């Protein structure tokens, strides 16, 4: 800590430092962008294209009481920390720069006290977090069992019951909040989402008159696509009431009421059986790794012998348990859990499903996120008017950060196709894939 505080007999025992000086010395190798603060101090290269401005003492308290991504997220979401040179709807370039060139040295408690004294912060008491922040894991554990039906409903509502109009602006007309499939680099987001749903339908070999169950159906895009394009009778279930209402209105608008329906229901409450196919697109992330056996057993039991299951979800490149980061857990997907595709495949196999095919769409998700950021930038003012600037900032940060994760193979996206075989072992699966 002697590098921060200097003794000089002519000027007293301790020289206080500015915020800029403290930031510069607490970042190994120095800041890669221009940093300025409300006390008039600065740090980092003067000719940098990108900048960061700390506006308030509350923002400083956020940074000091929650070092790392959580503190920066709190300050940024609350408007106490601004980025310049990037749009708040797409801070991708700034996040890449910070990720590649910023290594914070976390101060010890005694160092933090000295920094606080030097910078004029009277206490190291965390300010109240922004309203967009969910409870920490330990508080959620006190208030309910992880992945119980009640707690799952609460956290799903936290993320999805934001505003249907907001999702329309960010996701586009498809209202698909899952990885798209870019058949060419020039494909639009809408073309890529349609290609994804068609791929799922082809992998499931959907035929007119068949029955499809789509669990975690969101706004019903898969249900409507399967009914409209393949003539199946489709049922979707979602824990989000706003999603269910929007989906059923869309079904009626498109004249699909005789083929499709969406229910506000936990997938565990679906009792019908004999479905020809089950699709799960973006649900497994919310299930919990320990619950995979029950999850796959329940979906298996919904299928007829010879029926198919397509599981589409975000995965990790390894099969070791790893909690999501503090920002994602508090602001985006509370209780979300990710693990490698090997664990998912093993869980499906252990419940008597035969895995026929697995495919990694990781680069496609990076492209999907890029296009969601573009939509957010294009409709920024309307998004802010709909949900507030704090929530809009959360989304810009989350989407851009996730894009980096997919680009760098920190996360992946796997589709796993499996069958419930007949008692004699027949799968009704062709000798070679037909899609």
From TrEMBL:
Annotated transmembrane regions: none
Name the Gene Ontology biological process terms. Answer: methylation
Which InterPro entries does the protein's record reference?
A: CFA/CMAS (IPR050723), CMAS (IPR003333), SAM-dependent_MTases_sf (IPR029063)
One example GO MF annotation? methyltransferase activity
**Organism whose genome encodes this protein:** Nocardioides furvisabuli
Pfam families membership: CMAS
The protein's name: Class I SAM-dependent methyltransferase
Signal peptide coordinates: none
Q: Which SUPFAM superfamilies match?
A: S-adenosyl-L-methionine-dependent methyltransferases (SSF53335)
